Amino acid sequence: MSYLNETHDPALQSWVTSANEPDNGFPVQNLPFGVFRARGDTGPFRVGVAIGKKVLDLKGLAEAKPWTGKAAQALEACRADKLNALMALGPEYWSALRLELSRALRSGSPLRATVEPLLIDRSAIEHDVPALIGDYTDFYISLYHATAVGKQFRPDNPLLPNYKWVPIGYHGRASTIGVSGQKFPRPVGQTRPSTEGQAPNFGPCQRLDYELELGVFLGQGNEHGRRIDIAEAESHVFGLCILNDWSARDIQAWEYQPLGPFLAKNFASTISPWIVTLEALAPFREPFRRPEGDPQPLPYLTSEENTQQGAFGVDLEVLLTTEKSRSEGAEPAHLSRSNFRDAYWNIAQLVTHHSVNGCKLQPGDLLGTGTLSGAAEGEEGSLLELTGNGKQPLNLPWGEQRTFLQDNDEIILRARCSKPGYPTISLGECSGTVLPAIPL
């Protein structure tokens, strides 16, 4: 697990003045990684670190060779156009690079003259998916989401008997994961026939939904056949991003039995451009708790250390804009808010369970948390929950209603960590827009 060190000192200030602005989200205590290039450039993307309103070009910094040892080796890995090479090195290298970057960006740093010419305005760049994602597994770790969804289909028995014992997941489609700003056509597929026994309907999805999630990017992998123990699971995690795992609910209802989601999930998933390392999130660790009376995890999914500080307090928010609201200049409508601390399973448990049968995990693989809903009203992580499966329309501030997403709707997800006496750490923003279906 990552612990507090000098990079977490709340009093640290940066010579990048925008990093010192209250609640800017990217102070010197954060330093998330991503890939970028100047907007309109057609050249390769470059690895960078966000600091205030700037991004530091790490490929350019590598050419200056400012360090030795593990930090230098980690910086060399940043010459690539994706983060996989850095991810593969492991936590000692990530931590060494983060420490030197923190020192270089702090007020009074002797490296300022070297680093400052390598800063670019974040407002002038564009992003790509930060890693080559070989595999993508989506989990289902919110008890509140699973219960709310289950009640709509199995009112007397909303949770299946395995839910409280095993982290449920399915293998998703990595090729359609896009970065924030992604625009995708409305999915098309089969839906349940109007009359039992007749042919199913076929056409554009009518019940398109978002899912408020976090993404877990893996770093070092494991050998095929070697399971990852719960005590070392977090050392295989590079960091977290925001994830919107869009869902075609009507297609899903027809296809998901007996093998689970397929076309209902493979048309698009959107992630935020910045990956915040677990080390940066260390000040926001919390005890991992189960509701009183619930079964405790099996021995391979638990440890004293994981119980004491295996959860993270990450605030999550969902907002919506529509074609009408944008044309009128209206502010995005707030839909819901929840927190990652309320998940039924945590990061280490997902990694351990995924590998317990010897599954080979690789640098850049992505794990989705599943929809992160809370217990209270206003903490629903999907329209399926917010609208009671479309039976209770949402009234939007500019006069429209929504049960599910319409063409040209935009969903914005935000995530941040905050507590008294410590700078706000942002995971950035994840936005995506639904386009009309491609004509059949």
Q: What portion of residues is helical?
A: 10-25%
The CATH H-level homologous superfamily of the largest domain: Fumarylacetoacetase-like, C-terminal domain
- Quote the beta fraction: 25-35%
Distance between the termini: 51 Å
Supply the CATH architecture of the largest domain. Answer: Alpha-Beta Complex
Mean of residue pLDDT values = 96
Report the sheet with the most strands, covering strand number, pairing sense and barrel closure. 8 strands, mixed
Instruction: Pick out the low-confidence regions.
Output: none
How many domains? The number is 2
CATH class of the largest domain: Alpha Beta
Account of the protein in words:
By secondary structure, the protein is an alpha+beta fold. The protein folds into 2 domains: 6-127, SH3 type barrels (Roll); 136-435, Fumarylacetoacetase-like, C-terminal domain (Fumarylacetoacetate hydrolase, domain 2, Alpha-Beta Complex). 19% of the residues lie in helices and 27% in strands. The protein has helices at residues 58-64, 69-77, 84-89, 91-105, 112-115, 143-153, 249-255, 304-309, 323-327, 347-355, 383-386, and strands at 33-38, 46-51, 54-57, 119-121, 125-127, 136-139, 169-171, 177-179, 182-185, 188-191, 201-204, 208-209, 212-218, 237-244, 247-248, 269-271, 276-277, 285-286, 311-312, 315-321, 333-339, 366-368, 394-395, 401-402, 410-419, 422-435. Strands 6, 7, 8, 13, 14, 16, 17 and 22 form an 8-stranded mixed β-sheet that branches. It has a 5-stranded antiparallel β-sheet with strand order 4-3-2-1-5. The longest helix is centred in the first third of the chain and has 15 residues, at 91-105.
